[in-house]
User: Which sequence fits this backbone?
DNA sequence: GTCTATATCATGATAGAC
DNA sequence: GTCTATCATGATATAGAC
C-alpha cells in the first residue's frame, strides 16, 4: 500500500514551498528542494500542480484568501474607520509575529516575476478593502477629504514599513509593542478631528 | 581595430541590465539577453563583471550612490526637518517620473535574493540618512518624541506606498500632483506642532 | 496517486583566437 | 579588451512501472 492516497500531500507541498520561497526566494528554490523538504516524490508534485508555477499559484491563492478573510473579519467587528483601521494594524502586526513566512510571501515577494498572470498586489482584494474602508471613513466625516489612494497610503503606509523592517530584522521588539505609536501616527495623518495630546497653545 | 577599448562598454551593459532587471526581474533575465540588448559580446561581460551577480552589484552600487547623493543634497539645502522631508519627497516623486526603472530597481527589487552579501535595503546609507534626519527633528522639537523607526516609517511610509503604487500602474496622475497631500499627511503624523486647517473648536 | 529513472534544454560560465 | 564557439551544470518536466 505504498501508493495510497495522501490527502495532506498538497498541504505538505504548499507548506514546504512557503518555507523555501519566503526564505530564499522562488527562483533560488528548485523543485527538487521542495521534494526533499515536503517528503514527497517529484512525480506527485507534477501530478497535482502541473508545473512549478502551479505550486506558487496554489500558495498565493491560499494565503491571499486567508488574508482577505482576516481583513473582512477585522472590518466587520467595528463601525468606525478609526476602530477598524486600528484593529487591522493590530492583526497585521500579530500575524507578522505569528507567521513571518506568510507575511514575507504576501507583502514582500515580487509575485509579478513568477506569476505573470496574477494582478498586481495593490489590486488584490485585501487592498481594495482597505481603500473602501477609507472611503467610508470619508463619507462619515472621520477622515479628511483627500485622494483615496493618498489617504489609504498614509493611513497604513507607516505600518507596512514597520512590517517590512521587522521582517528585515531591523526592528528589535515584537511589532505589537509599537502598535499604539504606529497606528496613532497613521490616524493623525488622515483624521479629520485631530487628538490634541500635549499641544501648548501658542496664540489663540 | 575591432578589438579597441570601448570606454562606454560598462555603462552600456549596466544600462541594459537596469532595463531588463526592472522590467522582468533578475532571474528572468539571462546573460545572453543582456548581451543582445547592450550590443556587446558575452566575453566582454565576463571580462568586466566576473559573473552575472557582478553586473547586478555594479548596477546596485551605481544607483545606490546616486540615491545617497540626492538625499544628502536635499537635506543640505534646508535647516528644518519639515523642509528637508518635503524636499526629499518632492525629489523622490520627481525621480519616479523621470527614471521609473531606477526607482523600481532600488525600491522594489528583492536584492537579497540575488545579492546575498548586500546589507538589507533599510540598512543602506539613504535609509540611515532618513533616520538621522528624523532624529535631528526630534532634538529640535519639531517632531514628537517617538521611537525613531516608527517616526521615520510614519513620515515617509505614505510616500513610499505611493511610489510603489505608481510603479504598479495604480496611480493615474504623475506623483508630483499628490505631493502636497502626501507630504502633508506624513508631516501631520509626526509633527509636534500640528497645523490646524479647519478644526472646529469643541470645548476649550 | 505515487513513485523512480530519465529526457531535454536553457543557462551561467570558459577557452582561446585576434 | 573584445570576440565567437563551446562546454558543463543543473533545472524543469516527462515516461512509465507499480
Assistant:
Amino acid at each position: 500500500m505504498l501508493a495510497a492516497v495522501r490527502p495532506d500531500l498538497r498541504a505538505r507541498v504548499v507548506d514546504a514551498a512557503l518555507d523555501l520561497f519566503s526564505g530564499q526566494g522562488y527562483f533560488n528554490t528548485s523543485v527538487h528542494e521542495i521534494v526533499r523538504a515536503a517528503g514527497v516524490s517529484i512525480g506527485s508534485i507534477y501530478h497535482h500542480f502541473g508545473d512549478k508555477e502551479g505550486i506558487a499559484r496554489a500558495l498565493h491563492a491560499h494565503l491571499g484568501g486567508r488574508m482577505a478573510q482576516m481583513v473582512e473579519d477585522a472590518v466587520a467587528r467595528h463601525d468606525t474607520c478609526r476602530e477598524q483601521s486600528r484593529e487591522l494594524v493590530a492583526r497585521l502586526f500579530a500575524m507578522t509575529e505569528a507567521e513571518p513566512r506568510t507575511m514575507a510571501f504576501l507583502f514582500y515577494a515580487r509575485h509579478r516575476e513568477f506569476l505573470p498572470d496574477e494582478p498586481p498586489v495593490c489590486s488584490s482584494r485585501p487592498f481594495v478593502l482597505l481603500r473602501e474602508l477609507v472611503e467610508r471613513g470619508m463619507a462619515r466625516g472621520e477622515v479628511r477629504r483627500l485622494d483615496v489612494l493618498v489617504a489609504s497610503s498614509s493611513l497604513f503606509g507607516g505600518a507596512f514599513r514597520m512590517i517590512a523592517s521587522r521582517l528585515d530584522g531591523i526592528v528589535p521588539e515584537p511589532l505589537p509593542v509599537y502598535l499604539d505609536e504606529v497606528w496613532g501616527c497613521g490616524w493623525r495623518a488622515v483624521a479629520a478631528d485631530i487628538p490634541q495630546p500635549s499641544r501648548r497653545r501658542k496664540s489663540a
